[in-house]
Amino acid sequence: MLRILTKDMLETDRRAFDEMFRARAAVFRDRLGWQVDVRDQCERDRYDETEDPVYLVAQRPSGTLTGSLRLLPTTGATMLKSEFRGFFDQPIDVESPGCWECTRFCVHPPTQDADPHSARTVATELLSGLSDLALDTGIERVVGVYDAAMIGVYRRIGWRPTPLARSRPEIGNLYVGLWDVTGDNSRILQANLSRLLAKVSPTPAATVIVEGHGGMR
User: Fold this and answer.
1) Which pLDDT value is given to residue 140?
2) Which reactions does this protein catalyse (predicted)?
3) What domain count does the chain have?
4) Of 18, 35, 196, 210, most Cβ neighbours within 10 A?
5) In the predicted model, is pLDDT for residue 209 greater than 50?
6) What pLDDT score was predicted for residue 199?
7) What are residue 39's DSSP bridge partners?
């Protein structure tokens, strides 16, 4: 199940927010070693605190969250304009009401009741939900920064970005790309998700890649 969270729900749905922020700390700081701000075992940044992000979360029937991502309009403050700006030699000027930035794409650490191929399933569910949400709300494109190791994952999931630029070598093997929002892409994602949910056997290679890189930064 997918849910949308906004800051005005913080007090009424504190458990979901805390679980999401704790998972981000576990994945981005503890597993991937990113330099992120963690307080009380929760990873938050200034965009969570001072902007008005929209969060998309995947949730099990038990209430446990399995994945999350964050959306910000490119007409306001974004990581691409600030933290990520120095990653690329050429300026990346992406600002449009029809384009939103996706960051903090996170497949949460597995729980005891997680099935073996849940990481790929959760990543597909999040991207499918993101595509549907964008289609329903008039968002035409999604921009994000991603590791080169995710290129194959996005291809298998069925929604590949168009790369705009590659980071300088000393930064790492990162790209900034655009995901086009179309009805065809949404249908492909939904079909791929349905096939994954119907599977009994895991897909280990994709699971390792998705868990190891955390998706869009």
Assistant:
1) 98
2) a fatty acyl-[ACP] + S-adenosyl-L-methionine = an N-acyl-L-homoserine lactone + S-methyl-5'-thioadenosine + holo-[ACP] + H(+)
3) 1
4) 210
5) no
6) 78
7) 42
**Domain that residue 177 falls in:** 2-213
User: Residue 138's pLDDT band (boundaries 50, 70, 90)?
Assistant: very high
Using CA atoms, how far residue 127 sits from 34, 41, 57, 60, 112, in Å, is 23, 26, 11, 16, 24
The contacts of residue 44 (CB under 8 Å, 6+ apart) are: 21, 37
Distance CA 161, CA 178 (A): 5
Say what the pLDDT of residue 115 is.
59
d(CA 215, CA 5): 19
Ordered DSSP codes for 53-112? -EEEEEE-TTS-EEEEEEEEETTS--TTTTTTGGGSSS------TTEEEEEEEEEPPP-T
Q: Between the CA of residue 20 and those of 112, 153, 194, what are the distances in Å?
A: 17, 22, 25
Which of 134, 131, 126, 132 lies closest to 107 in space, CA to CA?
A: 126
Give the CATH number of the domain where residue 107 resides. Answer: 3.40.630.30
The residue-averaged pLDDT of 31-36 equals 90
